[in-house]
Design a protein that fits this description.
This protein is mainly α. It has helices spanning 2-27, 34-62, 70-103, 108-111, 114-140, 157-161, 169-202, 207-235, 244-267, 271-286. It is globular and about 65 Å long. Residues 17-266 form the G-protein coupled receptors family 1 profile domain.
């Protein structure tokens, strides 16, 4: 019961935080720019990813047998993969957006035109759908003969492969290929963007401005490190040393903890968000 209350509380904070961020950006005209459209997309992805996983997990705390059908399991796997992969690339797009805003502010409106940022956001979901379709398509072809207990709190790739009694060679190759691609390409984009951002921050004359910029960047980098670190721990370890119990702990970070923290991290000390929130409150007070 304590675990149920803990994760129920986390899920409620996640839903309120992410939906609140989407609504706030939608209602505030001065937040209608690429930076906040990316943030709104991140909030949508985090809300969906948490909703795909957490409600079913909460059921397991209050019932003796938490059953899921084969089709339900494959559906959960498919949508989890879409949003997990989409998050990798939306974080990379956000880092690139911040690089353009800080390092090339005069060219920002040209570089981040409607066509470009809408293409980036569309690309994020297209990659997620393609990779998820490949993984799920090859998972459906597997013959399972030990479908008694999935040693995990949701239907994920590696725990399902442990139940297979047909060859999983192609599936393991896909995990290695897509895992490497979907983790390292965004990470390299983020690292490169932040190297230029930090170099630009170091040129700021004001000590207060420099420390504030570093503080904001460090919180963003920490969120990215936790997300990608936990993903890499789960998917890029050799199967011989991969422990499902350790994998469960790692999965909690990228499916539950990070979606809860992202709205706070990306709006922390953000004046535009604070102003928008105050305006909404004032509008409701006058009504």
């Amino acid at each position: 019961m304590p675990l149920f209350l803990l994760f129920m509380g986390i899920y409620m904070i996640t839903v309120l935080g992410n939906l609140g961020m989407i609504i706030l950006i939608g209602l505030s005209s001065h937040l209608h720019n690429p930076m906040y459209y990316f943030l709104s997309s991140l909030s949508f992805i985090d809300f969906c990813q948490s909703t795909v996983v957490t409600p079913k997990m909460l059921v397991s705390f209050v019932v003796e047998k938490n059953l899921i059908s084969y089709s339900g399991c494959m559906t959960q796997l498919y949508f989890f993969l879409i949003f997990a992969i989409a998050e990798c690339y939306i974080l990379a797009a956000m880092a690139y957006d911040r690089y353009v805003a800080i390092c090339n502010p005069l060219l920002y409106n040209v570089t981040m035109s409607y066509k470009i940022y809408s293409s980036l956001i569309s690309g994020v979901y297209i990659i997620g759908v393609l990779c998820a379709s490949a993984h799920t398509g090859f998972m459906i072809r597997i013959r399972f003969c030990k479908l008694d207990v999935i040693n995990h709190y949701f239907c994920d790739l590696l725990p399902l492969l442990k139940l297979a009694c047909s060859s999983t060679y192609i599936n393991e190759l896909l995990i290695l290929f897509f895992g490497t691609l979907n983790i390292f390409v965004p990470i390299l984009t983020i690292i490169t963007s932040y190297i230029f951002i930090i170099a630009s921050i170091l040129r700021i004359q004001s000590t207060e401005g420099r420390s504030k910029a570093f503080s904001t960047c460090s919180s963003h980098i920490l969120a990215v490190a936790v997300f990608f670190g936990s993903l890499a721990f789960m998917y890029l370890q050799p199967s011989s040393v991969n422990s499902m119990d350790q994998g469960k702990v790692s999965s909690v970070f990228y499916t539950i903890i990070v979606p809860m923290l992202n709205p706070m991290i990306y709006s922390l000390r953000n004046k535009d968000v604070s102003v928008a929130f105050k305006k909404i409150l004032e509008r409701k007070t006058f009504m």
